[in-house]
Amino acid sequence: MAVLGKVLLSLLVTFAALLAVYMSAYAFSVPSSLLQAGQVALLLVAALVIGLVWRLPPQWLLPLLLIVGGLALLLLKQGGGF
After folding, report:
1. What is the pLDDT at residue 82?
2. Cα(24)–Cα(68) distance, rounded to whole angstroms?
């Protein structure tokens, strides 16, 4: 069960990061080089979070699933996804 939760959380973090990168592409007032650096930094942070997910004990999975799920829903709402 813990492996399934870690896989789900990893996919959710990946989804939230890619959605944030997609939404940041519409930041027209930001210089292109700064925007690309921010997108790369965001993807690196997402990769670090996924690495951390696989090192944490199973009791952290439920709170993290709720936090990342809420963040993903907030990003979807801000992007007009629902």
Report:
1. 64
2. 18
